[in-house]
Amino acid sequence: MERKETQQPRIDRKTLVLTVVAALLVIAIIIIAVVLLQRSRAEEYNSSYEAAMEHYIAGEYQEALDAARRAYGEDATEEAVLIIARSCAALGDYGGAVSALEGWVDKNGSGEEAGALLEKYRTEAEAPPTESPEEETVSIGGESFALDADTVVLSGVSLTEGELEALAGLENLTNLSLNGCGLEDVSALAGCEKLTTLSLEDNAIEDISPLSGLRSLRALYLSGNSLGALEPLYGLDGLATLDIRGREITDEELEALQSELPGCTILTDEPIESVEEITLGGQTFTSDVTRLELVGAGVTDISALAACTQLEYLDVSYNREIDSISVVAGMPNLRVLDFTDTNVSSLSPILALTKLEVLWLRNTKVTNISALSGHTSITELELSGNDIEDYSPLLSLTGLGSLILSDAGLEDSDLEILKQMTWLDRLHIENNAALTPEAVAELTAALPETIVSAPDFADVTLGDQMFPVDASQVNASGANVENLEGIERFTGLDALFLNDNPGIDISGLGGAASLTYLELARCELEDVSELLSLEALAGLNLMQNRLTDVSALRRMTALTELYLDYNEDLEDVSALSGLRALHTLSLKGTAVTDLSAIAGLTELSTLDIEGCRIESIEPLLGLKNLRTLYAAGCGLSSDELSELGRALPNCTIYT
């Protein structure tokens, strides 16, 4: 029997190569995806952890707890669980604090602090409730701090060696700011090993070796010092932010520092790159700009300004989409900051702005102003239109001259804090409907040297403006006035300006019999019969409306000025024939062709009929007091102009 050979299919070289390449590409894609996922999780962890720290420093413990839990979900680090536990404890939930710490310790051991903190909270959770003893405090820089304080902020005060050593005795101290305190020797701070944020700006520090053991630090601000060697910072591998501006630094030093602290953002006076060009909000400018205005420019994110470290004046107001000003923390020279009418909710970045003088944040989402504490350089502050939860941080702003709290939802209880601010020059608390006259009177009495602009409890509201009832002149032009409810409460109204309120209902205006001057330009009026009774008017402006009938003006014999310009369908002005006191009359841009009604207005000195295709100049020839006549576009012949010139020798005619 014959044996048949079976031939195996052969794979050619090209197919084999393609198969191998495809496999390698798949592996590469998987590796890249894993790396990107890890990087994304690291960025999310850092963002959540920093947010947790900001909230904890600001006393926003629930928000700190939420952010710390998000960070822990990305990376179950000891620092994240410590914030979770401390936030729970601050909220009175020792059980939650113990549970969080036990879960971490069971998996990772006692760690650097977690084990000790767990034992402390277990003791406090199991201890029977007792009457709280009087809180023990320590005096530092003229202020008292609880022995369990986690935050100390002092600025511009001299500290003794004993006071500095007392800081090391605050066992829970994690955040310390001693800006502008004249410090030369920081050896006493070597014992503050739990510090995560340390700000020592604007001192006279040269030797920073005592800080080399503060391994928990995540943010260190040393700008404005005469720093020597930077090597003591090399071991602080947990740093996320380091500010050493004000110290000359070579490229080699900076490269070495970046190499030792690869995960740290380092702020220096001499960026490695040269001045860069930035385009934002339709403007192009260089990174060394000192003044920048981006008002209403449609900007949604200002992180591009991170390179603008020399800014002294920054205005990003009326950009509603902006929700963070974190970038300003790197602008140490900032004196004026305006983020009015934005969605910003956190003031934490302002902690680093020791030179800030003017701060405007009207109509934002800010509710907590604890970050303002100790900013004695601020001289002008506006918080109008914000729902501030606690105004007590204002008591530390002893350099403040002007404080604006209009439309801030103030209640009588809030005034108890304002009463203590006797150093204020001006205080604005208008448009706070919940305030009572009695409370405002007490505030005014408590601040005898302060000019207090308070609500007038007898004000009249027109549109979005308020006016005192005894006002003689009221300008509500462009104020979104829809009706004139309450106008009858004015006791001596003489002049009223209501221009640029399209669609306004002027019902009730006829009752303002004391008016001598009235403006209603550009209000889309079609009927002014309501004005019939205003016989005392000497001046009336009705230009750019939709009038076709002005018979309501026939009784206004006191009128000396009347403006009816650009009522394009107005043809009949016969009602004006009796207004013999008129000195100025403008019919420019109307459809008037017959001027016979004004032939008897012999007191006229100025007449504007520009654009009126008049039928005859005869009514003008007897106006001997006319000094100025605007007649361009009237179709007058040269003969007619000559005749007018002879009849009115003292009149200048513009054609």
UniProtKB/TrEMBL annotation:
SUPFAM superfamilies: L domain-like. SMART domains: LRR_SD22, LRR_TYP. The chain crosses the membrane at residues 16-37. InterPro entries: Leu-rich_rpt (IPR001611), Leu-rich_rpt_4 (IPR025875), Leu-rich_rpt_typical-subtyp (IPR003591), LRR_dom_sf (IPR032675), SDS22/Internalin_LRR (IPR050836). The keyword Transmembrane helix applies. The keyword Nuclease does not apply. Pfam families: LRR_4, LRR_6. This is Leucine-rich repeat domain-containing protein. It comes from Candidatus Scatomorpha merdipullorum.
